[in-house]
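Session log. Operator J.P. requested a structure for one protein chain; no other inputs attached. Running the standard single-chain path with token output.
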Amino acid sequence: MSLKYPQIGLRARFMLLAVVLTVTSSSIWGGWLWQHEKKSLLERPSREAEMLVSTMAIPIINAIVYEELGIIHEGGLLDSFVAEIMATPQLEVRYAFVLNEDGRVLAHTRLTEYRKTYSDPLTLQILRAPSFQQFFSVVDGERISDFIMPLSIAGKSWGVLQVGISMEPAYRELAQLARQVIFFSCLFSAGALFIYWIIGTMLVRPIRNLTNSMEGVGKGHPILLANRTRHDEIGLLQKSFADMLERLNRSEIERNITIARMLENERILAIGRLVSGVAHEVNNPLAGIEGALYQIERKGGDPVQRYVGLVRQSIERIGRIVGQLSDLSRVGEIIPQVVDSDLFFDDVVMFSRMAIKDSGCRLLTDNRCPRTILFLDRDKIHQVALNLIINAADATTSGGTVRLLAELDGDCYVLQVQNTGDPIPDDIAAQIFTPFFTTKEAGHGSGMGLAVSRGIAEYHGGSLTYTHRDGRTAFTLSIPNALYRGTDHA
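Structure written below.
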């Protein structure tokens, strides 16, 4: 069956991305150009108007002074200056007028305003202005920029000159510029998209050829693996696909190893179920033997005491082995409960000190875990911790040190038992978690402790691992918080 290409293929996605990038870049470029030109177009008439009112302020002040002195007739010369302002060719002046310091109109482009006195707040604010001002307004739908120049000499105010300039010509130029920017942006975008379409086609063709080659590999024709002549990204993709096939082969090997381990675990569980019944059958006669031994010890006198002690030791050893076999059969019976981390650690420390008090080793503890709530089978984890500490004490020379460390690593509660000494040889380290494997002398270990401990850790969803670093041997028990993450306990 041939490979079906999706409706939204690589070229379509590439074109969609190209459209977004092109439109975005064109918009940014056009917006920047328009803003730059807008500032220039609006500032140009403002500069010319400011220069105009600044230039006309001095002759207007002179005219006002001459009128007050009676040298010239009132209003005549001022009207000429206003008319001259209105006739400025570079600007579209809509109105111009002169107010004295009391707000009375001395000259105005509209004769009806002559001699009127303005007392509104805006006029009073203008009369109090200490320097040149500009503000915008809208008059009959037209955008006007007002320029106010105080008429003052040596601290003496003679009024103000106010000129209104239409900004519509500048805005008309801006509108025309906006149309030009949009036109050229569309033209640029169309050309760019055409080029992107050609590039997308060139990119998709070798990828489709590569897809056909990959499909041929699946049918038993290793075309892809035999053809590695490309030295571009497609060639890298070919190499990546070949590497992926190799990883898949390795994964298949690892999967087989995992299956073998699962079978081993099933075997251990089967042994556990078997020894559970055997332990029950053995415990009953052991109880009878212990009862009979008690009677022999009570009535036999001194000659039989030594033999009774040897028999009792053997019975106790059989009992320990049966107990450990029973533990192996009950590993899956995890009964989690809410446990305070500090109290749990203190209990482990107390039992550990009692367990190794005759070993000649010191136990150093370090609880780095912030106080929290755990949800685990306390007795089972106690069993694991005690077994690790006893093993560490047995592997440490008299006067040595065993360390117990607790911490919270991400979402996991971690107990680590460390001891100094030589590392476990690699060939032995690979078997230490195997049931019935032990390096201890006969009568001192059954080889079940670490196997049972790892089973308890795995049934909690955690792990039990061995490491040796910087002269220290460490067994690390990690229990994930996922078991109690959803509890409401604080």
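Operator note: The first helix runs from residue 10 to 69.
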